[in-house]
Design brief:
There is one protein chain. The chain is an alpha/beta fold and about 300 residues long. It has three domains: about 10-85, Winged helix-like DNA-binding domain superfamily/Winged helix DNA-binding domain (Arc Repressor Mutant, subunit A, Orthogonal Bundle), CATH 1.10.10; about 90-165 and about 275-310, D-Maltodextrin-Binding Protein, domain 2 (3-Layer(aba) Sandwich); about 170-270, D-Maltodextrin-Binding Protein, domain 2 (3-Layer(aba) Sandwich), CATH 3.40.190.10. The chain is about 40% helix and about 25% strand. A five-stranded mixed beta sheet has the order 4-3-5-13-6.
Length: about 300
């Protein structure tokens, strides 16, 4: 049975989405390289055809989505994604167009540049933008469809988010070069618990680090908390305590030129897992799958193993 055509065009949807993302008709017109009048007219026609007010206009303060606008934005993004997928099916070996993905902030310095380079190498016509995101931003940005996928740790992001696990990130301890522990080949949590801890304090990461001690029936001596990976490393190198981390730079020097000694922690029950987070119940788009493949390639440049195969 034939259906009526939708009361809008894809161009209207694209203009609406960009205005919603940038919060400004002017900014959207500059980004889209079209006249502002064309953007304003398209949005007005879209609202008229839908019989809904999508934006609140505020002079000199841009525009803001109404409740109806928020609901329609989610649906509009689905339509545009489906349209892109339909076109890409005609060229199954070629991907193009925008891709907006994320990378967890503490993973970004280690993996983001390589992942972006791999996407650019394998999919040169994909316009990939990778955003640094914290754990608390991931669920919101995925559910609002601001991101298609995120390379992150496999934390619990809520019922609407799944993580396809790719690799482990084993925990280790870092101590100053002159620490009595520096000569050891490994340490235990029990040996660390009485020492001053310089904690990397970042929402879900904090919970993970402290859970290691809780699970072992121990309570760490937290000396200082910092949200910066490099500040934590520098404090440890200057002898203020030890830290526990998951990502390891290619060298053991801190930004101020001091050296750290890294030690495996024996007896730890749970290592952090890394993978690609996405909306549950939805199949990844072909471009998002290309992003996931790029993450896997960068993690395992010499083979194609996942954590389940290690």
């Amino acid at each position: 049975m034939p259906t009526s055509p939708p009361p809008f065009t894809l161009t209207q949807l694209r203009y609406f989405v960009r205005v919603a993302e940038l919060g400004s008709m002017t900014a959207a017109s500059e980004d889209l390289y079209v006249a502002q009048s064309a953007v304003s007219s398209a949005v007005h026609q879209l609202e008229s055809s839908l019989g809904a007010t999508l934006f609140i206009r505020q002079r000199s303060r841009g525009v803001h989505l109404t409740d109806q606008g928020h609901a329609f934005l989610t649906a509009a993004l689905r339509v545009l994604t489906s349209a892109d997928e339909a076109v890409s099916c005609l060229q199954p070996d070629h991907l193009s167009g925008p891709l907006s993905v994320g990378c967890f902030t503490t993973l970004a310095p280690f993996w983001l540049p390589g992942i972006l380079e791999e996407i650019q190498r394998t999919c040169p016509d994909v316009e990939c933008t990778i955003h640094e995101v914290t754990a608390t931003e991931i669920e919101t940005r995925l559910n609002q469809r601001k991101l298609d996928a995120v390379f992150t740790y496999a934390f619990d992001y809520g019922r609407g988010i799944d993580v396809d696990v790719l690799a482990e990130a084993p925990v280790y301890a870092a101590v100053a070069e002159n620490s009595p522990l520096a000569a050891r080949s490994a340490v235990t949590l029990a040996e660390l618990a009485d020492q001053p801890l310089i904690l990397l304090d970042m929402d879900k990461s904090t919970n993970y680090f402290l859970s290691l001690f809780r699970d072992a029936g121990l309570r760490p001596r937290i000396q200082q908390r910092f949200g910066s990976f490099e500040v934590v490393r520098s404090m440890v190198a200057r002898g203020h305590g030890y830290t526990i981390l998951n990502q390891r730079p290619a060298h053991d020097l801190t930004n101020d030129g001091l050296r750290l000694v890294t030690l495996p922690i024996t007896g730890v029950g749970a290592h952090l897992l890394m993978g690609v987070a996405h909306r549950s119940g939805e199949q990844l788009s072909r471009k998002a799958r290309a992003f996931s493949d790029a993450c896997r390639t960068v993690l395992f440049p010499d083979n194609d193993r996942t954590v389940s195969e290690m």
